[in-house]
TrEMBL record:
Protein name per UniProt: Uncharacterized protein
Top-level division of the source organism's lineage: Bacteria
Lineage of the organism: Bacteria, Pseudomonadati, Pseudomonadota, Alphaproteobacteria, Hyphomicrobiales
C-alpha cells in the first residue's frame, strides 16, 4: 500500500510540475509545436 501511495504521489507531483510547460524557470519554446501543427480550421456552425 505504501508503494502504491508513493507512486500516486509522485505521478501527481510530476503532472503538477509540468502543468504549464511554456512558462516558469524550466520551460520550453512552443515553436516546434507551431511548426508541426496545422492551422486550426474555422469554427463550424
Amino acid at each position: 500500500m505504501g508503494l502504491f501511495a508513493t507512486g500516486v504521489a509522485t505521478s501527481v507531483l510530476l503532472i503538477a510540475a509540468h502543468d504549464r510547460p511554456f512558462t516558469g524557470q524550466i520551460s520550453i519554446s512552443p515553436e516546434p509545436l507551431r511548426q508541426i501543427m496545422p492551422e486550426a480550421p474555422a469554427a463550424r456552425n
